[in-house]
Amino acid sequence: MLTSEEQPASPEEQALYEKFVSKAFLMVYDKKFIPKVLEMLAGGDDPLEGLAVTASMVIARVMKAAKDAGQKLPGDVAFAGAKEIFEDLAELSRRAGIKDYSQDRDALEGAMFRTMDQLRMILEQSGDIDREAAKADLAMLQEMDQSGQLERLFMDLAQKDEAAGAQPQAPATSEAPPKRRGGLMPQGER
Question: CA 58 → CA 6, 161, 185, distances in Å?
């Protein structure tokens, strides 16, 4: 993992990240819950909204579980974990034949912003949001957008989706969570 200041993650941050994402994958790929996840991803007539609602709900639940366990998630860890969860759900949507976001980066970017906005609303309603931290996170997203980092993030995701499309995939209803990538940032960026 690299922080926003391009410093490697500490072992503690990496462990928190791994636990955060693993909990989300265990929830999403639970054999009893996966049918509901797929239904939510379809989003009725709007798969972008479906992805945003599903991702924000999963991320919020895992954040609440961490809070209930007395575990504080630093912003960089939560953001990187949320990004991986979002990417995984977008890939699950493609594998399930709901929507292929690798063919529509603008839609993927829009769904990511919707996810962040819905997550913010969920956290505000539960009283778990720190307004100053939320402003800082929004400023970081805007800075990433202006500097082109956000576009690169989505280009990387599209490339991963294209590469994944060439490899055999497990069925969308697989009970096993996807294989972990092993870090907060892709291996080439560590």
Answer: 27, 21, 20
Q: Which residue has the tokens 């080439």?
A: 188
Distance CA 26, CA 42 (A): 20
Type of residue found at 148:
G
DSSP 185: S
Q: How many CB atoms lie within 10 A of CB 161?
A: 20
User: What is the DSSP code (8-state) at residue 102?
Assistant: G
Strand-pair partners of 186:
none
Three-state secondary structure string covering 20-37:
HHHHHHHHHCCCCCHHHH
Q: Say if CB 29 and CB 22 are below 8 A apart.
A: no
H or E element in which residue 144 lies = helix 131-147
pTM tops 0.85? no
pLDDT in tens, 139-190: 777 788 788 887 777 777 667 656 655 443 443 444 444 444 444 433 333 3
Q: Is the dihedral of CA 132, 134, 140, 146 positive or negative?
A: negative
